[in-house]
Design goal:
With 208 residues, the chain is mostly helical. 45% of the residues lie in helices and 9% in strands. The protein is built from eight helices and five strands; from the N terminus they run H-H-H-H-E-H-E-H-E-E-H-E-H. The longest helix has 21 residues.
C-alpha cells in the first residue's frame, strides 16, 4: 500500500477514491480498510514532504463510463452462464478457475426459484481437475441439463471426452480462459496458441 500512497501523490489521485476502492475490496470491513488506508496516508504524507514533482502528469476523473456496466472477463462469463436461460444447470469447475469462483457469488441471487420456498435452480460441483470437470459437463448434457465448465487451456488429456461429446452429439460448452503469462515463464507467454488449438483440435469429421 505504500506505493499506492506515493503514486496517489505523484498523480494527484483523490484519497477518497482510494478509500472507496478499499471499502469495495474488503466489503466494508473496517479493520483491514483502516490498516491499509493508514499505510496509504502515511506514504502520501511522506511523498508530499520529501519528494519534488517535476513532471506535468495528473490523473483526473472522467465521466466516459457513465451508463456503462464495468466488469472484468471472469465476471462477465459468470453472469452470462448464470442468466443463460437454463431452468436447471450444473456448473462443474476446477477450483482454480476464476469464472467458477465468481459464479458462486451471483448464482444465489440470479438462480433461485420464484416459489415461496426459493429453492436453488443450480448446482455447483468442485471437480478435482479439468478432466473431471469436462466429464461432469458431458454427463450433465447427456442427462438433459445445460452445463458449462471452464479451463485455463485446452489440453489433449481431455480430448477423448470432447470427442465423446462430439460423436454422441452431447452439447458441451467450455469457457477457455486463456493464460497470457509470464506466470511460469516461457510455457505461458503471450501467444495465440489457445486460439489455434481450439480451432484445430478436432479431427477431420468434426464441425468447427
Amino acid at each position: 500500500m505504500a506505493y499506492v500512497g506515493v503514486l496517489a501523490w505523484l498523480l494527484d489521485i483523490d484519497l477518497d477514491k482510494i478509500y472507496q476502492a478499499l471499502n469495495f475490496h474488503f466489503k466494508g470491513k473496517t479493520k483491514p480498510i483502516d490498516l491499509n488506508f493508514g499505510v496509504v496516508q502515511a506514504a502520501y504524507d511522506y511523498a508530499n514532504h520529501s519528494l519534488t514533482k517535476t513532471d506535468p502528469y495528473r490523473v483526473e476523473p472522467m465521466a466516459a463510463t457513465d451508463g456503462y456496466i464495468m466488469a472484468d472477463g471472469n465476471t462477465a462469463a459468470a453472469l452470462g452462464r448464470s442468466t443463460a436461460g437454463a431452468v436447471r444447470r450444473l456448473v462443474p469447475d476446477h477450483p482454480g478457475f476464476q469464472p467458477g469462483r465468481v459464479a458462486v457469488e451471483y448464482l444465489p441471487i440470479l438462480r433461485r426459484d420464484s416459489s415461496p420456498d426459493g429453492k436453488n435452480t443450480y448446482a455447483v460441483v468442485q471437480a478435482e481437475d479439468e478432466l473431471a470437470a469436462i466429464g461432469m459437463a458431458v454427463g450433465a448434457g447427456w442427462a438433459g441439463l445445460r452445463s458449462m465448465t471452464s479451463t485455463s487451456g485446452l489440453a489433449e488429456p481431455d480430448g477423448g471426452v470432447r470427442r465423446l461429446a462430439y460423436f454422441a452429439e452431447v452439447p458441451l460448452v467450455v469457457w477457455d480462459v486463456q493464460r497470457v503469462g509470464p506466470s511460469t515463464g516461457l510455457p505461458t507467454r503471450t501467444a495465440q496458441g489457445d486460439l489455434t488449438f481450439t480451432h484445430f483440435m478436432a479431427m477431420a469429421t468434426h464441425s468447427r
